[in-house]
Design brief:
Length: 346
Amino acid sequence: MTFIPCDMRRQAAALPLLVPLCFGLVSTDVAAQAAITTVSTTATASVFDEHQWPPTQSLDRPGSVSSHVALDRQSGGLAGSAWATAVGTVGYGHMQLRTFGGATLDGAGPVGEVSAYAEATASLYDSFMVSCPTCVAGTEATVTFRVRAEGTAAVDGRLVTTPDRADADFSAYSAVSSSFFMNATDANDPTQPVGTGMFQSELRWHYGGSYHDRPIWGDTLSARFILGNPLSFSWSSTLQGNSRVANYTEVGSMAGWSAFNADYSSTFYWGGIVEVRDSSGALLTDITAFNDSGINYANALPPTPVPEPATLWLMLCGAAGVMALARWRREPAPRAHGANAARGDA
């Protein structure tokens, strides 16, 4: 598990905005500023010596983009396919990201490799003004709010060879990272700006079984600020995944597949303000927190729900398995590749 303190390298386009926020240098003596959003997707595939690298799709306003690629080729007695999809949406107070794909390789023939890659990234910068009937401008207050990030990252794969040999392998990887910062001090540690982050990765490969890194996420945060000054935040998230299957010999035959799926299309969102208290600790009521476009950040801002990803994942893995093993129907049942394959399938 890895906490992300302030690593914005993957969101280079938003770096001029994000770096000042990390160090608490953003001015707070102006009105709430207009939101700035970005979203982009990339998908690539490679089968033997053919590659598809379509241009990255991107928007610098609220909206959605997607990328998809698929290749299906033969080389001698080998048949390979690779496909990948990335989908991204960004709006006021939320991001929706999903990446999935897979690769298959089977038959007997020359050395060959297939692979697929997908990436979706989004960033959101916005500011809002906290106010209430009894709020006194210029005085210190503490706001407690929620940010939500829940999803899934999954990988799978299988490899069988005839005869039993080590000259083939597969790998599947999926990862998600997210970081959030606000231009206010942490109520629990005044020496630090308010911020949180998470990283989750899943790896499965032929010789090493599976690896899991579970997420860290600070769901509820508290910040000290001055009433009458806007609160600004930046939030950036990235999903990545890749699949690969390779054959390294012309001896015998093989069949392998790998697949990845990362789905955070429902739960990167601002969870609303829990409470605001003045400098004496008294609870302030009837809170509003409007941004420049009239969005009230006092409320939770979840995105529109999307279908449950489990069905998609089952379909993806099932299709990969069928495609990889279909050509083996007339062949004797191959043996799994030793103890390593057994451990990889655990």
